[in-house]
Amino acid sequence: MKPITTESHEHDPPADAGWDYSPAPERTPVPIDESYGLFIDGSMRAPLSRKRFETINPATEDVLSSIADAGAKDVDAAVQAAKKAQGPWARLKASERAKYLYRIARRIQERSRELAVLETMDGGKPIKESRDVDLPLTAQHFFYHAGWADKLAYAFPGRTPKPIGVCGQIIPWNFPLMMAAWKLAPALACGNTCVLKPAETTSLTALKLAEILQEVDLPPGVVNIVTGAGATGAALAEHPDVRKVAFTGSTEVGKVLARSVAGTSKKLTLELGGKSPNIIFADAAIDQAVEGVVSSIWFNQGHVCCAGSRLFVEESVVDEVVDKLRHRMQSLRVGDPLDKNTDIGAINSAEQLKTIERYVDAGEHEGAIMHEFSGQALPDKGYWHRPCFFTGVQPSHVIAREEIFGPVLSVMTFRTPEEAISRANNTPYGLAAGVWTNTGSKVFEIARKLDAGVVWCNTYNTFDAASPFGGFKESGFGREGGRHGLQSYVKF
Ligand code: NAI
Ligand code: MG
Known about the structure:
The chain is α/β, with parallel strands linked by helices. The chain is built from 16 helices and 19 strands. It has helices at residues 72-91, 94-110, 112-123, 127-148, 152-155, 176-189, 204-215, 230-238, 251-261, 286-298, 318-330, 350-365, 398-401, 417-425, 440-449, 482-486; strands at residues 38-40, 43-45, 52-56, 63-68, 162-163, 166-170, 193-197, 223-225, 244-248, 267-271, 277-280, 310-314, 369-372, 388-391, 408-414, 432-436, 454-457, 476-477, 490-491.
């Protein structure tokens, strides 16, 4: 190991200046079964389909476990179990329903280290994120909705909210357990029952959650978990006894689901992709803004639907911002996701890595200038992408228009607030945005004019179960979290 020096010129990459870190691997043991079944009617069952697939650790390519690939008959069994359980669950005293949610939340807290490690192993995200972001927010979502269960009349004054029935919930791989909580907690609080389908690359924490549901004696059938890929999701969404479909994932699949639900009485909420803008004004606290940009695009390898993937900087400060961004990028730690020092972990799958590489090639091909991380060498095995950003980006470039879902940032400039707004809104998406300025009036003015479900001011990626999250335009519709989120799980 190189000696640690305390002297380093501000703009030298610390790696070159002799900085090194001792490895600090997370060693909490996590029991993983060799194979898993489907969680239906309160117990684990072998799939009727008899089909299985492997889930791997994207940082090592090691096989972690064999996962059941649920077919249409399995999905039907899960939906029937949910249907049977729904009446009794809805008739249960609301304060009793709340107790189950509180128990789930507490058990998640008690087992949070184990769950965080497993999330990192199955999905590739850094342990410091799964431990400090995913798990606390997962527990928080159950606690928050436990509080609503017996107060729904106050959420909808003068009306009588009733449960919808069986909810089919399909979630992605970027925040597996947290997305499960975002879907399950409000549905259960409102008296619905659920069939949840995790993403095929990250099923393991959902299956651990099934263990927790057994530990807290949740009545059988109230939550069912079916694993599998797109075909399993399609079978769930198309099942005639599913009354509501909730989806988070790609805009492409969101459109397929919208078509499959059209003409039925099913309710639908979609939380899709984004191309969210961060806008830095010259009067902003630049260091703080750069830190916000770092977390908005490089957090979780850029596998974030609301990632701030387009950066608009007021022209007079662009050199300063780019300089600081480059410096900060070079100080990131990229590598073993189980190392507590790691900032950027593994890309979730070989497929996603190819997508990111294709976009980076397109950016260079179209003439944008790439600034790439030059720090530590990447591990030999696994799927990795160095954090990078592009300058010289034109609004017409594909990297400025399409969702990349990787650690790739496009930097552009503006001269007036009007130009910032029109450029930021020039996208088919509308999920989130960030505004960085020291002028309070500008914050309100700009936030009002941005087409985005969430606008963060002088911060980014700040979440709270009480605050609704969701998009406009091709980023989807419906909200998750807060009183608004409950609305998707009741009828009147
Ligand atoms: P995807 O949209 O295919 O997968 C999300 C979930 O939908 C998974 O559980 C998947 O099994 C399921 N699914 C796939 N096809 C389905 C169908 N026809 N019917 C029902 N369910 C179906 O996303 P994918 O392929 O993993 O990633 C592709 C791109 O999507 C990414 O590059 C990224 O741009 C975007 N994405 C956005 C996410 C978000 O949080 N908004 C999350 C994941 C991906
Ligand atoms: Mg995996």
